[in-house]
Amino acid sequence: xxxxxxxxxxxxxxxxxxxxxxxxxxxxxxxxxxxxxxxxxxxxxxxxxxxxxxxxxxxxxxxxxxxxxxxxxxxxxxxxxxxxxxxxxxxxxxxxxxxxxxxxxxxxxxxxxxxxxxxxxxxxxxxxxxxxxxxxxxxxxxxxxxxxxxxxxxxxxxxxxxxxxxxxxxxxxxxxxxxxxxxxxxxxxxxxxxxxxxxxxxxxxxxxxxxxxxxxxxxxxxxxxxxxxxxxxxxxxxxxxxxxxxxxxxxxxxxxxxxxxxxxxxxxxxxxxxxxxxxxxxxxxxxxxxxxxxxxxxxxxxxxxxxxxxxxxxxxxxxxxxxxxxxxxxxxxxxxxxxxxxxxxxxxxxxxxxxxxxxxxxxxxxxxxxxxxxxxxxxxxxxxxxxxxxxxxxxxxxxxxxxxxxxxxxxxxxxxxxxxxxxxxxxxxxxxxxxxxxxxxxxxxxxxxxxxxxxxxx
Length: 458
Ligand code: DAH
Prior knowledge:
This protein is α+β, with helices and mostly antiparallel strands. 47% of the residues lie in helices and 16% in strands. Strands 1, 4, 5, 6, 7, 8, 9 and 10 form an 8-stranded mixed sheet that branches. The protein has a two-stranded antiparallel ribbon with strand order 2-3.
C-alpha cells in the first residue's frame, strides 16, 4: 500500500512538479534567450519525469515543444546580428560557432529524450525544418560568408550533420523499440478455438458430377464439354433424329428467336457433345460429357433445366459386351455396392443401333428403395437408369468417320436422377430452389473431394 509519505511517491511528484515548472518557464520565455543551463535542467526533469513515469507520452511532445522554443530563441538574435553585418567584425565568427555548438548540443539533448517517432519528427521539424531559425541562419551565413569567415560555416555544417545523424540514430532505435513492444504485446494464442466461419456447401449435383468424372477417369475417360446453345444440326440432324421426331417440336424444345444460319436451340440433351468430339478429335475416343440440358417440361419430376451425363467410346472392335461391362463397373463404383444387377431392355434411340435401356435391380427396405440385387427377387423391382446403345453408323458417317472402321457405344443418363437415387432426395424441384436449409442438409463439404479409394461418395 502506498502512503502520502512513501519516498517513491514523493520523488515522483517532485519530479513531475519540476518538469512542469521548467516547461512553463520555457513557454513563458518564448522568444527570449534561454540560458543553456535552463535547457539542461528542463531536459533532465523531463528525463526524470519519464523514468519515474509521471510524465505521460502525450505530455512529452508538448513539453519538448516548449523546450525547443527555448533552444531556437538564441538563434534569432544571432541571425539578426549576421543580417546587420556590413563589414567583417573580429571575433564574430567565433561567437556564431559557439552559439551553433550550443544549439546542436541542446538539440541532441531533447532528441535523446523523445519517446515516440512522431515526437522526434515534430521536434526535428521545429528545430531544423524549412522555416526554422536554423535554416535561416545557414542561408544568411552563406550570404555573409566573407564577414563571418569560413570556420563559422564549417561549424554550421558540422552542427547540421550531427543533428541529422542523431535524428536518424534516435529514430531507428525508437522504431526498433516500438516494434519490440508490438511483438511483445501482440501475442498469438494458437490454442484458442477458431472463430466459426460461414461456409457454403457443394451442391449434390456438383458432387455427383465430380464423382462421375472420378469414376470414369479411372477407366480412361476424359471430360468433354459443348455449348448449351446448340444448333439443330449438332443437337438433332447429325444424331440421326428425323425432321418428324417429336423432340424437334416447338413445344418440347426451346428454340432461339431471330435469324440464324441454322436454327438454334437450348440443347435438349448432352448427345451433341458426341458429335462435337467426333468431328474435332480423331478416334480412339473415350469421353464423358456432363452438363446442363433444357426441355419445355415442368412438374414434380421434370424441370425445364436439368443435368445429364453422356458417355462415348469410339474404337475398333467395340461390342455390346464392352458397353455392359463399362456400365456395370460404373454403377458399382457409383452406388458403392458389388451386388449391382443390370437389365438391358431393347429400346429405340435414333442415334444408336441396337439401343438398350438399362435398369438396375433394387429391393424395398423399410419403405425405402435400396439399389442392389436382382429386381426379380422377392420384394424387388427394376429401375430405369440409363439409355444406351451402339453408335448408329449414320452418326459415325455424319462426323466424317468410316463406320466400317470405327464403332463404339454411347450412353446417357440424368445426373439429378442419379443423385436422388444415391442420396435419398425425393423432390427434383428442391434441387433448384436454392433453399439454404436444404443445401445445408444435402450439401457436401468442399473438402470432401470424391476419390475412388475413399469411396466416391464419402
Ligand atoms: N440423349 C438421350 C436422352 O436425352 C439419352 C441417351 C440415350 C444418350 C441413349 C445416349 C444413348 O448416348 O446412347 O434421352
